[in-house]
Amino acid sequence: MKKIKGLDLFCGAGGSSLGARAAGVEIVGAIDAWDVAAETYKDNFPQAEVITARLDDNSDTSLFSRVDTVDLLIASPECTHHSIARGAKPRCETSRRSGWYVMPFVRKYEPRWIVLENVSGMRRWDGYKELINELSEHYHLRVQMLDAANFGVPQTRKRLFILGDRLRKPAKILPTESCSQASVILDEPYAWKARPVFGGHLSENTIARVNRGMSELGKGKDFLVVYYGSDRAGGWQPLDRPIRTLTTVDRFGLVRWTEGVATFRMLQVPELRRAMGYPENAKLERGSRRDRVKLLGNGVCPPVMQAAVTSLTSEALKESATLSKTRSVNGRMSVAA
């Protein structure tokens, strides 16, 4: 049976491609503007042709010299200037237009399927409807909001998915697993250095967050301190629910009781990897700690992309398998005759 070949635009560290590969796709090429992301991607997909370049309206589709056939195009255009996390800061239209930069590759390779992923705020962009109309000229589309917590990922992470199939309307993507608790991402006690909460090293605002959590949960209960939040949740969350959305900066601290003393530390990269649903064998070794936090916060949860790609391609794969089986049976009958 023919292997589905995939191309990943705005690939980042490769979260989308890890999910697509888990769904049976062979990744043949990828592109990202950030060298740390591209090098990380190469570590995980050494057979793919990986290009470090910034896409724009004038991008040359001949960037790839070894990519000839593409069945699936996946892309996560820049989301910063669509995100509500940006607040009232000015928006860059060049960044917001990055969804359009997939179109030259759609026209050149004519992939059977596409998956575009972005933050929900993309729908409020003035050019969104025009982009959807353009994609509709080539594909039957389904637009769906997916929460990673419904796909076995211990994180609440809602993202917009635009799925396209040239031959049929994509089916609705159904949840695969119930959400996990944030507690499952944590390393064992003493794995990382932590200091007493009330040792004088934390800011007044952080102490206020800690006190609110302790007041609600009581002594002896571990919980997370949450920075940069705007949801009026008090700057903390319990561990018996999915962690809130990871961003490109350090956002989560852990209050853990050790021998009767409340200690504090920031969550570490291995824990954030688990919060994104990255497989244990995925490599994330390039750049500084800050770079790795950014790579994860900018990324796509692999289990969600796996579900999206599986939903898109499963019917075609079944049909291909049935056809191959029929040909095989007919071939044996012909020989027997």
Automatic annotation (TrEMBL):
Quote the catalytic activity from the record: a 2'-deoxycytidine in DNA + S-adenosyl-L-methionine = a 5-methyl-2'-deoxycytidine in DNA + S-adenosyl-L-homocysteine + H(+)
Q: Which InterPro entries match?
A: C5-Methyltransferase (IPR050390), C5_MeTfrase (IPR001525), SAM-dependent_MTases_sf (IPR029063)
The record's section on Gene3D superfamilies has: DNA Methylase, subunit A, domain 2, Vaccinia Virus protein VP39
Single GO biological process annotation from the record:
methylation
Task: Please list every transmembrane segment annotated in the UniProt record, as residue ranges.
Answer: none
In its keyword annotation, does this UniProt entry include Transmembrane helix? no
Spell out the molecular function terms from Gene Ontology.
Answer: DNA (cytosine-5-)-methyltransferase activity; DNA binding
Name the active site residues: C79
Keyword Metal-binding assigned = no
Taxonomy, superkingdom: Bacteria
Q: Record's SUPFAM superfamilies?
A: S-adenosyl-L-methionine-dependent methyltransferases (SSF53335)
Q: What is its EC number?
A: 2.1.1.37
Q: Which UniProt keywords apply?
A: Methyltransferase, Restriction system, S-adenosyl-L-methionine, Transferase
Similarity remark: Belongs to the class I-like SAM-binding methyltransferase superfamily. C5-methyltransferase family.
Tell me the protein's name.
DNA (cytosine-5-)-methyltransferase
